[in-house]
Amino acid sequence: xxxxxxxxxxxxxxxxxxxxxxxxxxxxxxxxxxxxxxxxxxxxxxxxxxxxxxxxxxxxxxxxxxxxxxxxxxxxxxxxxxxxxxxxxxxxxxxxxxxxxxxxxxxxxxxxxxxxxxxxxxxxxxxxxxxxxxxxxxxxxxxxxxxxxxxxxxxxxxxxxxxxxxxxxxxxxxxxxxxxxxxxxxxxxxxxxxxxxxxxxxxxxxxxxxxxxxxxxxxxxxxxxxxxxxxxxxxxxxxxxxxxxxxxxxxxxxxxxxxxxxxxxxxxxxxxxxxxxxxxxxxxxxxxxxxxxxxxxxxxxxxxxxxxxxxxxxxxxxxxxxxxxxxxxxxxxxxxxxxxxxxxxxxx
Length: 348
Hints:
CATH class of the largest domain: Alpha Beta
CATH superfamily of the largest domain: Glycogen Phosphorylase B
CATH topology of the largest domain: Rossmann fold
Order of helices and strands: EHEEHEHEHEHEEHEHEHEHEHEHHH
Largest sheet: 7 strands, parallel
Oligomer: single chain
Structural class: alpha/beta
Shape: globular
Number of helices: 13
Number of strands: 13
Strand content: 15-25%
Distance between the termini: 11 Å
CATH architecture of the largest domain: 3-Layer(aba) Sandwich
């Protein structure tokens, strides 16, 4: 069984690690991807993977570059001769599912673009139309999170087709929790519009007596640094093990998510999470048990942070529950074996 995974770029983050784990764990797999662009950094998980570079492929919509990427990917497919082409995210899914061939087609939605402010309304409408068309050319559709799949079907994308929802498998980090000092609220994500980092800046301004730290890189990094108040440290990319070893509560202010790996890693480290109610965050966090899921507005996030800041026993109980639940729900073996079953059934 030969599986070619296709993704636009493997920038630092959960999606890259999700794809890398599949490529590494399932024999006969290879990766076709473009390179990171701008301020993005390629994830360390790429090192050592069997990889084909699609030089013209990037996240931004560009008819000329996208056509070149299609030609490059078509040549890669001819060389690799896959049984299955498994695409991830919109751009790669568009290009890969238009490549001709007798191979089976699988596509994974790691989220959706409905709430992504980096795309205009007309672009989102065009993407939705394209996804409806592409779904009919796909043998298996997968969503990383049940809620994301429901929202896509509600938009008419693959509404009459069978779907799988596969939670990401995450390996616990070797985290050593700090034993003293101020309570630190940590934000770790790409510093780009869809993650709404400026909401975190606003939260820090509203709570000047608390300590905040933001980790990650992206096109808004310098803007966030310039706007950060004195109680907010903006540190750029950093090692996740070190980060979660210094943080007491994880915070996510995203406008759009799939099932964020960073929040699962935080919970595996015994850290409670406060996150906006977008995408499948409510599947990652059990509201009131392992953390708090709140509306995506300033007042709601401030209220949640204030609640955990003033209640050490609640933080401790949520952190303990988070660790237990994350180990049960987000095991790597389950993610890998589910994909293997899907692939095998496709080729029967």
